[in-house]
Specification:
Layout: H1 4-21, E1 40-41, E2 50-54, H2 56-59, E3 66-74, E4 77-80, H3 87-90, E5 101-104, E6 115-124, E7 138-142, E8 167-172, E9 187-193, H4 196-202, E10 216-220, E11 236-239, E12 242-249, E13 260-264, H5 265-272, H6 276-281
Antiparallel strand pairs: 1-9, 2-3, 2-5, 3-4, 4-7, 5-6, 6-7, 8-9, 8-11, 9-10, 10-13, 11-12, 12-13
Bound molecules: arginine (ARG).
Length: 287
């Protein structure tokens, strides 16, 4: 059986082909109670640090080239998933994607709201392991700063936001059904942080993937129904007003007993040697 990460990574390319063939597909109405699977529409002003990663060259213009999510943690610093920068997704190294941009402040991908900002530097976590998906994060340095009020603080290790049962919200423009129904307008879904023990049971290794508590965090609902999905990767999971996770992987979307797996943001902070001081101007230790 193929690893679920490999399946997940294949999806954005399929999307590009489908979206190009059926221009109206992305504008099709979605059921009011479905997300980012099981979610609801949200205006980007409520989550201004949520950004879309875009390349019209690679993914076509029907959804403004959106292929992953990201999150602004300083005016010129956006976090995303390392796997979003992989050749499996982009078809080329990121520096060869000449129209690679971050779209900020835009709810509807096809509107001209907000800004499209060029990327000055892409730094992929050297500790990222594409086999296990451990350490799934990358840092994008923007060519122009975002407003300071469009950034979110990261949640450090030991913060109560990581406690199992904490309500969290995930944001994205990804698939709302698990069947390739990528949306035009930003959506959000409420989920709950799960214990590492529960997540280890869900993903003990083998076909459905392995949960590695050091660098990953699970969130979802015991009964399923609410989750991130393909196209949401790299986007934010927020709890108690702070960033706790980046959408990374899962087995299917919204299935009972198969929660979403997120990059653990406290581990991102540790790797980047990030503290409150460098958060203000976007400098980080290792990039
Ligand atoms: N890997 C996917 C992406 O590239 C994200 C999958 C998240 N899946 C989940 N069930 N939470 O967009």
């Amino acid at each position: 059986m193929r690893h679920p990460i490999a399946r997940a990574l294949a999806r954005p390319l399929i999307l590009a082909a489908v979206a190009a063939a059926i221009p109206l597909a992305s504008a099709a109405p979605v059921a009011a109670d479905s997300i980012v699977v099981g979610g609801f529409p949200v205006d980007v002003s409520k989550a201004p640090w949520t950004v879309a990663l875009s390349s019209r060259d690679r993914f076509g213009g029907t959804r403004a080239g959106q292929f992953c999510g990201g999150v602004a943690v300083a005016p010129t610093t956006v976090l995303t998933a390392a796997h979003c920068m992989g050749e499996d997704v982009l078809g080329a190294p990121p520096e060869q994607v000449s129209d690679f941009r971050v779209i900020a402040g835009r709810t509807d991908l096809l509107s001209d709201q907000g800004a499209e900002i060029a990327i000055r530097e892409v730094w992929v976590n050297p500790g990222y392991d594409p086999q296990s998906n451990a350490g799934d994060f990358a840092v994008l340095t923007l060519a122009e700063p975002l407003p300071q009020d469009a950034v979110i603080a990261m949640s450090a290790a030991g913060d109560p936001a990581y406690e199992p049962g904490t309500r969290a919200t995930v944001y994205g423009w990804g698939d709302v059904t698990g069947g390739g129904d990528y949306v035009r307008r930003l959506r959000a879904a409420y989920v709950h942080v799960m214990s590492d023990a529960r997540c280890g049971e869900a993903y003990p290794g083998g076909g459905d993937g392995t949960f590695l508590a050091d660098s990953m965090l699970c969130a979802g609902e015991e009964r399923g129904g609410r989750d991130a999905c393909q196209g949401d990767s790299g986007g934010p999971l927020v709890a108690r007003g702070k960033l706790v996770g980046l959408v990374s992987w899962g087995s299917g979307c919204g299935r009972a007993g198969q929660p979403g797996v997120y990059t653990r943001v406290s581990e991102v902070m540790r790797t980047l040697d990030w503290d409150g001081r460098n958060a203000a101007d976007g400098r980080h230790g290792t990039a």
